[in-house]
Amino acid sequence: MTTQTVILKINDRTALAEIEKIISTTGGYTVEAENGVPRDLLIFEITDKDTEKQFDFIKRVMSSGKAGHLFLVSGVTDPDILIRVLKIGPREFFQLPLNPDDVRKALLTFQTNRSSHSAGVDTKPLKEGTIIHVVGSKGGVGTTTVAVNLARSLLAPGKTIALVDMNLLFGDIPIFLNMESPLFDWAEIARNILRLDSTFLMGTLYKHPSGLYVLPSPAGVLESFDSGPDIITKLLNLMRTMFDHVIIDGGQDLGEMSRSIMKLADRVIIVTLLNLPCLINIKRLRDTFLTLGYPSDDRVSIVANRVNKRSANISVEDAERTTKKKIAWTIPNDFQNTMNAINMGKTLQEIAPGSEINRHISHMAAAFQRQRVNVHEEGKKKKGLFGVFSITQG
Ligand SMILES: Nc1ncnc2c1ncn2[C@@H]1O[C@H](COP(=O)(O)OP(=O)(O)OP(=O)(O)O)[C@@H](O)[C@H]1O
Ligand SMILES: [Mg+2]
Fold it and tell me: pTM of this prediction?
């Protein structure tokens, strides 16, 4: 995807801040200075002061090719000015106060059209990302905490990581990452499934300041989701080509959507607490996976969360005996830091990078990164990444 360059000439401070925010959270755009270098897009506000000068400026910039395309913004109501605005023929016109949804949609459409014109120019190789499906043995065991912080710990220079919330009702990721009114969620993908390509998706995902790309769950009940399994299959197959890792917060759902993810996931992580109800559920979950045709139990790893060596009544060893499976990683109990992280809307990497809990999660992330290196070292002899995965214990 090529990056589109934008010149912003907006006087209205609120509108300027809003547009800057939309641009920064819509992948594929950068704001540049107006210094004579040709840019892809000029976004200009027409005011009712010195209108003539403003129209001259636009004419000059557009006719000299210093900006390829024009979006206009205006709060004026004078019909004469508005008629002149129409005559200039901007690609988009936004009335103030802005509707951020309209601006973002216009940017996405602009980008989609541009990239289809330049198809074949962007020769960046496609990625072969891994899909990591994080599910909980029960509610409240820390599934979202693990998914969010694992995703954050996987971020590294040159790596792109996506985080998808599959808790289709009441997903928590926007709270965990302090995302303000995410504009696009699952419903947007569902509605636009026919035009789902990497450009559209990049614009739809929320770009968190940490660098994570996030697809939140819908804020309300989805209209109709009959084609959910098809959508998720298409979406994940596409995301695999765009990201090094796609982390899915799968909650406790075992419905049709979850089954489709299960078929595509390179790795399933079951987050559990070391107590009997959770451990019994692990057996049920693994049996269900096998009944659903999930190819191999080797791809399933158990992560014990909130492990407190001093007060534990079920030890890791006991848990392994009960579940007849190794606990791949343990995460220590740390109420303070996990709670602070949620309250501040930040990740553990941001608020407590040196904490034991963050070290454990980073350790787990490092194992996934090593596995990817193995994949590349061993070449692409086998189809499907799990052919070369060996589970690295934490
Ligand atoms: N390692 C930990 N130590 C202490 N508290 C933790 C730990 N992990 C998570 N918690 C706390 O447990 C609570 C639930 O965490 P989280 O929302 O991640 O769980 P969940 O399984 O996603 O829950 P839900 O079923 O509601 O989606 C939060 O208050 C969080 O701070
Ligand atoms: Mg959760």
Answer: 0.71
